[in-house]
Amino acid sequence: MRRMRGDKEEGERLNGGDSLVKLLRLVASLMIFVGGVVIGLASSSHVTRYFTSQADIFYTNRGSGSGGYSYYTSEENCSVIQMIVSCPKEDCWSMESFLGPKNLTHGMSDKELLWRASLVPYQQGYPYPRVPKVAFMFLTRGPLPMLPLWEKFFKGHEKLFSIYVHAPSGFKLNVTNSSVFLNRVIPSKAVQWGLSTLTDAEKRLLANALLDFSNEQFILLSESCIPIYNFPTVYKYLINSAHSFVESYDDPSRYGRGRYSRSMFPDIKLKHWRKGSQWFEMNRAVAIYVISDTKYYNIFRKYCRPSCYPDEHYIPTFLNMFHGSLNANRSITWVDWSLGGPHPALHGASNITEGFMQSIRNNGTCSYNSEKTSICHLFARKFAPSALEPLLNISSKVMRF
Ligand SMILES: *[C@@H]1O[C@H](CO)[C@@H](O)[C@H](O)[C@H]1NC(C)=O
Ligand SMILES: *[C@@H]1O[C@H](CO)[C@@H](O)[C@H](O)[C@H]1NC(C)=O
Ligand SMILES: *[C@@H]1O[C@H](CO)[C@@H](O)[C@H](O)[C@H]1NC(C)=O
Ligand SMILES: *[C@@H]1O[C@H](CO)[C@@H](O)[C@H](O)[C@H]1NC(C)=O
Ligand SMILES: *[C@@H]1O[C@H](CO)[C@@H](O)[C@H](O)[C@H]1NC(C)=O
Ligand SMILES: *[C@@H]1O[C@H](CO)[C@@H](O)[C@H](O)[C@H]1NC(C)=O
Ligand SMILES: *[C@@H]1O[C@H](CO)[C@@H](O)[C@H](O)[C@H]1NC(C)=O
Ligand SMILES: *[C@@H]1O[C@H](CO)[C@@H](O)[C@H](O)[C@H]1NC(C)=O
């Protein structure tokens, strides 16, 4: 993080030069000066003076007994000036950049980011026409081989989704200038699979996505995930759901309860312990609960180490303890464990047929908003890069996109 902040400052110095900074300082001072004048006027009982002599204000403000304002002299200790100078390309105070940062680059530490993302408006409603969006969060170890399929899936629905990519630090996603994935990599850190750095990355994705107040649903995906329904179906299903889709179940075996540590007692009891796939889907309220928790997360960080995997237990257990009624307890990402072993089946080119895709689109029945539905999964894993071509070939016929 610190390195990123350094890079940013370097970039500005190279681009802007000293004169730009000076100019901005001048503009900032002017703005603050005008602000001071307005405040001075408002709090002064002699508002009429403005009309008699404008010049008066410049000289009487400081000593006029209305507070002794000196905005135009104290540049050094005015943090507002610092903030304006540090992001010269946009108005930092605009509603637009507050509601949804356009540029995902930032210099916040995880601690600062999670705190900021946890802020919730107290007032009901929004001061702008809010169209809820779905945040697609890709947690990847490298390139996204299914990217062309996703681009086809997203095409034409630009106002209804946001994309976030967590990639190895320094990784550059190779996309065209018109891609919806362009500049969507968040400030990322190294991830060790199975350790808490993985759940840290999940929280980092959630927090970055929460900074956009229009994001309402949050789905975690990997590089081997694909969509199996078209965007309008996915959007409607998620936005209208009364529940989040975080798999959470009690596994009495050594792969479930066996991973519980007695050191977690009494804060987390064995009866609370749950297991579930890391590939979650959650709404805004649940996402804020998850990123705001530090107490239980610290217990997991301390006592859930291999062969306990925080990504399979932390969120399922935490939601079960406090927010169970908000959860459907099932995953919307289809996966095939039928082959046995520690890894699910990987599907390559030879496995992709219309019949196979239809079978995972309608793979039994499940409960949705307390009613039965044949749509249980919206996404599927795991698919090898070789599956891309045949998937693109049948997507319009089978998946309708
Ligand atoms: C602001 O800075 C000026 C001089 O730079 C100093 O005299 C003044 O006390 C400072 N005010 C505050 C509130 O720190
Ligand atoms: C985002 O901001 C960073 C640092 O302020 C800058 O280097 C980068 O070019 C910006 N990206 C875009 C797409 O504007
Ligand atoms: C980036 O993608 C283009 C087109 O898909 C490809 O031609 C190029 O080799 C890729 N570059 C890298 C560095 O992978
Ligand atoms: C993509 O954008 C970069 C930087 O803005 C530019 O240098 C490059 O020519 C663009 N490429 C295409 C194919 O438009
Ligand atoms: C999910 O499990 C919780 C207990 O953790 C339960 O309260 C809730 O009703 C379940 N959700 C559904 C949709 O059955
Ligand atoms: C995929 O196809 C290969 C070769 O046809 C086959 O060996 C494998 O079992 C298939 N995988 C699945 C999950 O069906
Ligand atoms: C679900 O999908 C799997 C894998 O294609 C298949 O073996 C199974 O029969 C399907 N179940 C239903 C109820 O369609
Ligand atoms: C695409 O599908 C058609 C028939 O549906 C088939 O004839 C063709 O070989 C397929 N192409 C690829 C690249 O899979």
TrEMBL record:
<keyword id="KW-0812">Transmembrane</keyword>
<keyword id="KW-0472">Membrane</keyword>
<dbReference type="Pfam" id="PF02485">
    <property type="entry name" value="Branch"/>
</dbReference>
<keyword id="KW-0328">Glycosyltransferase</keyword>
<keyword id="KW-0325">Glycoprotein</keyword>
<dbReference type="InterPro" id="IPR044174">
    <property type="entry name" value="BC10-like"/>
</dbReference>
<dbReference type="GO" id="GO:0016020">
    <property type="term" value="C:membrane"/>
</dbReference>
<dbReference type="GO" id="GO:0016757">
    <property type="term" value="F:glycosyltransferase activity"/>
</dbReference>
<keyword id="KW-1133">Transmembrane helix</keyword>
<dbReference type="InterPro" id="IPR003406">
    <property type="entry name" value="Glyco_trans_14"/>
</dbReference>
<protein>
    <submittedName>
        <fullName>Glycosyl transferase, family 14</fullName>
    </submittedName>
</protein>
<feature type="transmembrane region" description="Helical">
    <location>
        <begin position="20"/>
        <end position="42"/>
    </location>
</feature>
<keyword id="KW-0808">Transferase</keyword>
